[in-house]
Design brief:
This is V-type ATP synthase beta chain. The chain has about 475 residues and is an alpha/beta fold. The chain is built from 13 helices and 19 strands. About 45% of the residues are buried.
Length: about 475
């Protein structure tokens, strides 16, 4: 049942207040009609007795206290859903902006989603292949997982996001479709154009639903963007049995919009001015990933966030790390040295990969290769630290070999470029070639049977010779 009121009690930034309201509820949609006949939309964000606070999506500029007519629509913010969304570009609140007309929707759903019954969740298994060796081998993305990317201002996380959208796929299974929901929040026009152009040029746009919230769009819309994207993902996964990968960038922009909105409501701030409920708000987004036993599809999330001043203890990455199942950390020094993608291996991990790799999923030797590469690269860092004190010339023969291994690992394994799409077999074979640089006695994370089959020191020697020749 809708309710119509003439006049406003107060206007404060993006918020308006109405007094004497009965029967309205939190999160209900509102339509405001201005004196010139134009309309704006909003939602109820606070109820205090008979006083109602409304958040206006398009801003309050031009609203009149006396002549504005407010209609409370009696339902929450809803997303129009249909499989026709695939291949479309929408704004942050889910309206088409690609010039292709309206979407014929099958149903509408509350963007806040429906809580998943924990009993109906099934443990995430199987993996999504990104074609990026560092991710596929060392921090494997599992279907139903939430695996964030921690980046910094000015780094190449947008390029990495575009590459994942371009290359991501699942192992071919009968009747299984794969799609991507991409949500950009607070991006500039050139970044938005880069994403659209990249998806169209690489021919993947027909499997992508794209939500774009620009930096000059209202912050209110920015708060709605990830919820609209996740509602779309849940519909495609749990009702259309698709495997959906949700990429959201930049979560820090979303949190800053939340902070600004919280401040305008006069709420008591928490750490660095963010609202005290930031943890639960982020959890309400991240926990919408998963697999349930009543559907064949899955929702997997890769939220991307920029760490202010590269500070991993900042509230946004800090709280994200508590909620999610691992992280992929980008390294500024690797980025400055021209390595792409500049993934910092040692602080990155995927907590679910152990149960989604190996025989029947990727390859039987995957776990051994991953463990040994981690262990060997950790010794590279020890050798670098020692070299910074005594000089590289004074290192032992073993440490010098680890230094060579580290250079080859970064040159061949990490640095693969934007257009290189490696299969899991190519990635693991390359890992073995790199491990063959080291003496067999140093490979203590691999059993002897695997070593006999996969250890080929001549390949390692050839890689070193090639690398030194290029240098």
């Amino acid at each position: 049942m809708s309710l119509k009121i003439v006049g406003l009690s107060e206007i404060n930034g993006p918020l308006v207040a109405l007094d004497g309201i009965h029967g309205a509820g939190y999160e209900e949609m509102v339509e405001l009609e201005l004196q010139d006949g134009t309309t704006r939309t909003g939602r109820i964000v606070q109820m205090d007795g008979d006083r109602c606070i409304i958040q206006v999506f398009e801003g309050t500029r031009g609203l009149s206290l006396q002549n504005t007519t407010t209609t409370i629509l009696g339902h929450p913010v809803e997303m129009s859903l249909s499989k026709e969304l695939l291949g479309r570009v929408l704004n942050g609140s889910g309206r088409p902006i690609d010039g292709l007309g309206e979407i014929y929707w099958e149903k509408k759903e509350d963007i806040n989603g429906k809580p998943l019954n924990p009993v109906s969740r099934t443990y995430p298994r199987n993996y999504i292949n990104t074609g990026i060796s560092a991710i596929d081998c060392l921090m494997t993305l599992i279907r139903g997982q939430k695996l964030p990317i921690f980046s910094g201002s000015g780094m190449q996380h947008n390029k990495l996001a575009a590459q994942i959208v371009k290359q991501a796929n699942i192992a071919a299974e009968e009747g299984q479709e794969f799609g991507i929901v991409f949500a950009a929040m607070g991006v500039t026009n050139d970044v938005a154009d880069y994403f659209r152009r990249s998806f169209e040029e690489t021919g993947v746009m027909d499997r992508v639903v794209m939500f774009l919230n620009l930096s000059n769009d209202p912050i209110i819309e920015r708060i709605l963007t990830p919820k609209c994207a996740l509602t779309t993902a849940e519909y495609l996964a749990f009702e259309k049995d698709m495997h959906i990968l949700v990429i959201m960038t930049d979560i820090t922009s979303y949190c800053e919009a939340l902070r600004e909105f919280s401040s305008s409501k006069g709420e008591i701030p928490g750490r660095k001015g963010y609202p005290g409920y930031l943890y639960s708000d982020l959890a309400s987004l991240y926990e919408r990933a998963g697999v349930i036993d009543t559907a064949k599809g899955s929702v997997t999330q890769i939220p991307i966030l920029t760490m202010p001043n590269d500070d991993i203890t900042h509230p946004v990455p800090d709280l994200t790390g508590y909620i999610t199942e691992g992280q992929i950390v980008l390294d500024r020094s690797l980025d400055q040295n021209g390595i792409y993608p500049p993934i910092s291996v040692l602080p990155s991990l995927s907590r679910l990969m152990k149960d989604g790799i190996g025989e029947g999923y990727t390859r039987a030797d995957h776990s051994a290769v991953s463990n040994q590469l981690f262990a060997s690269y950790a010794k590279v860092q020890d050798a670098k630290a020692l070299a910074s004190v005594i000089g590289e010339e004074e290192l032992s023969a073993s440490d010098k070999l680890y230094m060579d291994f580290g250079k080859a690992f970064e040159h061949y394994f990490l640095d693969q470029g934007f257009d290189t799409d490696r299969t899991i077999d190519e990635t693991l074979d390359l890992g073995w070639d790199l491990l063959s640089i080291l003496p067999q006695s140093e490979l203590d994370r691999v059993d002897n049977k695997l070593l006999e089959e996969k250890y080929h020191p001549e390949r390692g020697a050839a890689l070193l010779k090639e690398m030194r020749g290029e240098a």
